[in-house]
Design brief:
Elements (H helix, E strand, L loop, with lengths): L4 H23 L5 H13 E2 L21 E3 L11 E5 L6 E2 L13 E3 L4 E2 L15 E3 L21 E3 L6 E2 L13 E3 L4 E4 L13 E3 L4 E2 L5 H4 L7
Parallel strand pairs: 3-5, 4-6, 5-7, 7-8, 8-10, 9-11, 10-12, 11-13
Antiparallel strand pairs: 1-4, 2-3
Bound molecules: 2-acetamido-2-deoxy-beta-D-glucopyranose (7 copies).
InterPro entries: Leu-rich_rpt, LRR_dom_sf, LRR_N_plant-typ, RLP29
Protein name: Leucine-rich repeat-containing N-terminal plant-type domain-containing protein
Catalytic activity: L-threonyl-[protein] + ATP = O-phospho-L-threonyl-[protein] + ADP + H(+); L-seryl-[protein] + ATP = O-phospho-L-seryl-[protein] + ADP + H(+)
């Protein structure tokens, strides 16, 4: 095929224009699509009486400032922005926490304190290896503590106090090498404290008052100045 010089210019220009568009698209930082889907699933499973999450449909979670969604300020090596924190306390949210929450794989702080959330703590939270703070105090959560929470090797603090959690304390909590604070008071946790938990290396606060535990308080734990049982 023969192209005139004019046509040639058009073709070259079009190619450059396409290249330019690709460059622009590459610089446009967006949230990891898996995390966007997870956030949509989380919203879907909650009742939000004040409409605080009504902007969770507009644009991109990290760049359009979805309420309570805090992201890392830079893209990671995979080229995406990632959710660092969910800060959703005191919003009267009810219904359940979707298991997709476990796909927020880079999250460090999860805060749903003082809502009216029912159902159990999703075991998928145990997949969030980066989690430092797990804050679920003051809800209506039931069911037992998932063993998977013991896999959270970076956890500093677990606060599940003032819920209706039942069942035993998981022995897997003995793996929580970095956890300083366990606030688990005012629930219906039962059984004995697993002896494996007596030697948690970073333990500072271990609150278990107003539960349904049996047996005795291990001497190792009672030496802690701040323990309540
Ligand atoms: C949630 O919604 C209520 C009612 O509109 C409002 O007063 C409150 O400031 C909102 N909170 C957040 C964190 O957006
Ligand atoms: C992002 O945050 C990190 C750590 O807080 C900081 O060192 C870095 O300078 C920030 N980057 C930008 C682009 O703001
Ligand atoms: C995308 O992120 C990179 C690295 O974090 C940054 O240098 C660049 O300015 C960002 N681009 C946009 C459009 O925000
Ligand atoms: C959230 O609610 C709790 C319990 O009602 C209250 O003690 C706390 O001050 C509230 N926090 C905020 C930030 O509104
Ligand atoms: C916790 O620390 C001990 C002692 O450093 C180590 O042997 C163990 O493997 C650690 N456990 C986990 C789950 O990292
Ligand atoms: C915890 O439970 C005790 C005993 O049922 C109760 O007196 C106390 O008010 C509860 N604390 C909170 C903060 O709900
Ligand atoms: C505590 O355990 C007893 C005996 O199993 C049970 O009858 C009672 O309902 C439990 N109480 C709570 C608050 O879970």
């Amino acid at each position: 095929m023969f192209l005139s010089e004019g046509h040639m210019h058009q073709v070259v220009f079009s190619l450059w224009f396409c290249f330019y568009l690709v460059l622009i698209a590459a610089q446009d930082n967006i949230t990891d699509p898996t995390e966007v889907e997870a956030l949509k699933a989380i919203k879907e499973r909650l009742i939000d009486p004040n409409g605080n999450l009504s902007n969770w449909i507009r644009g991109d979670p990290c760049t359009s400032r979805w309420t309570g969604v805090l992201c890392f300020n830079e893209t990671l090596i995979d080229g995406y922005l990632h959710v660092q924190e969910l800060q959703l306390m005191n919003l009267s949210l009810s219904e359940n926490l979707a298991p997709e929450i476990g796909s927020l794989a880079y999250m460090e702080r999860l805060n749903f304190m003082w809502n009216k959330i029912t159902g159990s703590i999703p075991k998928e939270i145990g997949n969030i290896k980066s989690l430092v703070l797990l804050l679920l105090s003051g809800n209506l959560l039931t069911g037992s503590l998932p063993d998977e929470l013991g896999f959270l090797s970076n956890l500093d603090r677990i606060q599940i106090d003032q819920n209706h959690i039942s069942g035993p304390l998981p022995t897997s909590f003995a793996n929580l090498n970095k956890t300083k604070h366990f606030h688990m008071n005012n629930n219906s946790i039962s059984g004995k404290i697993p002896p494996e938990l007596w030697r948690l290396p970073k333990l500072a606060h271990f609150l278990l008052d107003n539960n349904n535990l049996s047996g005795y308080l291990p001497p190792e734990l009672s030496k802690l100045p701040t323990i309540t049982y």
